[in-house]
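Shipment paperwork, digital attachment
Item: protein structure file
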Amino acid sequence: MRSTFSVLFYINRSRIKTDGTTAIMCRITIDGKNTAITTGIYCKPEDWNTKNGTVRTVREKLRLQEYRKYIEQIYEETLRTQGVISAEIIKNRVTRQFVVPTHLLQMGEIERERFRVRSKEINSTSTYRSSQYYQKYLADYLTSMGKEDIAFEEVTDDFGKGYKAFLARNKNFSPSQTNHCLCWLNRLLYLAVDNEMLRSNPCEDMEYEKKPSPKHKYVTRDEMKRIMEIPLSDRRAELGRRAFIFSCLTGLAYADIKQLHPRHIETTAEGRRFIRINRKKTGVEAVIPLHPIAEQILDLYNTTDMHNPVFPLPNRDSIWHEIKEIGVILGRTDDLSYHQARHGFGVLLISESIAIESIAKMMGHSNITTTQGYAKITEDKISKEMDKLIEKRSKTNNNVTV
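Attachment content:
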């Protein structure tokens, strides 16, 4: 017989800390017997919803959701493997997992494990993979100081400045790469603050590197035409090429194409097909009329089975080499990417004088300012072309004899 099981979050309004917050407690009940745990999460009493057992602030709300999910996972796993379950068994496992780390790299490993679990849930490993490098660079800095790790109370503002100087001196990173590393350091320090290992983040006033204006790399119209003209013999590579062309003609990112199902393909009264899908990155709806070539590609794959995706695509990391090969064929010195295909779509639409609002809707942008970036690319391209024309005419005029 399955046990009765419930999880309840609550606060003690009579025990308020000097900063005005109070601890969020968790009561686990199994078969009428309960036990309480301190979650290590704090909130202001006015932000607590007693009726729903939730907190108003987004950060704490997400942490509580993860805490609940972890308890439920332990319950299911223990019941499945041991056949016996109690509130105390769950409490013991939870408290072992949520021991607060006292050192910087130790906190980083716990945070990376959370990313690993999350990456499986959302089927995306990019954040987890990046955290491996940020953790390594921080470890390299500590090694240069003759340390294996550092206690939170030893971290000072000078530590942060030293790390920034270390990255500039030893890694030769771009401003963007350096800032990502600094963000990882600050993330771990703010987690220490959340868990009361620090009163405040000693590096919060550290200045980030100034980034130059972003330069969108994109697939040009000529490159797009050449990609269409070079079918690949390998079946997997050809799938990658077709999906890449589809991205160029729809502006869908790889993650969006991977989750594209027949239900996302609709038809107007005039018989024109279009895609309606919420983008995975932002959740914003994109509505995209289909180019005839995009329709031809669709017809080669699944457009009827609603339970399976249109394209049988593997994980993005698995098909990276195929896309790189296309870039080599094009003579690209930099790596080709699906993101460049999406940018190419935006530039193409701008160059055809399609309204910014329509482009924003097709690309699923949550902010029209993002869309206006493609207009800037086109303006720069026009300016360069005009400069070339002026220079050419100037040379011609100089060669004319009167």
